[in-house]
Amino acid sequence: MKLDTTYMGLALKNPIIAGASPLTASTDSIKRLEDAGAAAIVLHSIFEEQINHEAHEIDHFLFKGGESYAEAVGYFPDMELSNLESEHYLEEISTLKSSLSIPLIASLNGVSKGGWIEYAGKLQEAGADGLELNITYIPTDVDLDGRSIEKLYLDALETVLQTVSIPVSVKMNAFFSAPANMAKQFSDMGAKALVLFDRPVQVDIDLEELTAIQTIHPSISADLSESLRWSALLYKKVAASLCASTGVYTHEDVLKAMMSGADAVQMVSALLQHGESHITDVLSDLVAWMEEKEYLSIEQMKGSISLHHTVNPAAYQRANYMRILTEYRY
Ligand SMILES: Cc1cc2nc3c(=O)[nH]c(=O)nc-3n(C[C@H](O)[C@H](O)[C@H](O)COP(=O)(O)O)c2cc1C
User: Among 72, 137, 261, 318, which residue's Cβ finds the most Cβ atoms within 10 Å?
Assistant: First the structure.
């Protein structure tokens, strides 16, 4: 049974990547993820604010909207911001590279065009096999139009691509007016992979404290829907590889992602809930399913239910929206 795949130019032994999370912030759990069968690791992110908060040049035009990061340091509420963090991150990469036999992808999270992007070069020097760029910007400014937002993303990617020669992926959000066009622009610019999609930190209101708060709820398998849609729509339309992310829990989720057109998946919530060994279980269920259905390889099923290969392309498009509503029974 051939489970191997190619993702952002990296040869992976199977399609399951451990996505950025606290599990990929500790050497011990990263080793456990590798032992459980993870095909690659995306390190927890290093945030723009952690890299060089003194030197970074924030574009005031874009930032006058205030607290615009969807994620910022909300993942690490108690983390002290200091340049030590960025040094530590580089050391982490060097150490891990000497002990891991699977690809290690660094994760850079930020939005401005400041000096932090130069840090991408240091990630490469430290030995990262690839770089995942997570540019998540909440456009709070009512005077800022869509084109300006898109330019912000494209400029950041362009700067990173000029800095490094390792493959770069963009962890996209699904909120662009034209996600397919953005995906194509990222790909045409040179992104080797698109992660579909990021799951920004959620916002809530604390009724006791009467204040807005940030929170992280785990995803569920049903959240995979948008990744399936956009993998199916983008399959063979962009040169970049596609990675389904958000809501990947089971071997069925992996199979659906591959069939929609993804080259790999990222798992986070499932691993936080079930532990690193969950990957072993999913891989064994995957092999059992493929044997039963007589599939010989992952490659064979890729894109088999993408937009142009499914008997029901309308399912991926708005055209079916009216029908499902008229047929809906409760
Ligand atoms: C506790 C936690 C920490 C995370 N940290 C990061 C991070 O450092 N960088 C990043 O790009 N995404 C981060 N994410 C987002 C995940 O990588 C992933 O995109 C998201 O959880 C959706 O995948 P899932 O449905 O498998 O959880 C984090 C998610 C969680 C739940």
Answer: 261
Whether the CB-CB separation of 16 and 39 falls below 8 Å is answered with yes
With a CB cutoff of 8 Å and minimum separation 6, the contacts of 3 are 13, 14, 15, 283, 286, 287, 297, 298
**Number of separate domains in the chain:** 1
Which atom number of ligand 1 is nearest to the Cα of residue 22?
3
CA of 200 relative to ligand 1 center, distance in Å: 8
Domain encompassing residue 45: 5-304
Residues 255, 289: contact at Cβ < 8 Å?
Answer: yes
Ligand 1 atom, smallest distance to 223 CA: 25
In a domain, 39, yes or no: yes
CB-based contact 198:205 (threshold 8 Å): no
In a domain? residue 325: no
Q: How far is the CA of 4 from the centre of ligand 1 (A)?
A: 24
- The protein residue with its alpha carbon nearest to ligand 1, atom 3, reads 21
CA distance 47 to 125: 18
DSSP state of 69: B
Task: Give distance in angstroms: CA of 188 to centre of ligand 1.
Answer: 26
Q: Is 109 in the pocket of ligand 1 (CB under 6 A)?
A: yes
Mutate which of 16, 17, 21, 196 for ligand 1? The one with the most ligand atoms within 8 Å of its CB, which is 21
Residue 87 lies in a domain: yes
In-domain check, residue 145: yes
Q: What is the pLDDT tens value at each position of the chain, 330 positions in all?
A: 999 999 999 999 999 999 999 999 999 999 999 999 999 999 999 988 777 654 444 443 334 444 444 444 444 434 444 567 888 999 999 999 999 999 999 999 987 766 677 889 999 999 999 999 998 788 889 999 999 999 999 999 999 999 999 999 999 998 899 999 999 999 999 999 999 999 988 999 999 999 999 999 999 999 999 999 999 999 999 999 999 999 999 999 999 999 999 999 999 999 999 999 999 999 999 999 999 999 999 999 999 999 888 888 888 887 666 666 777 777
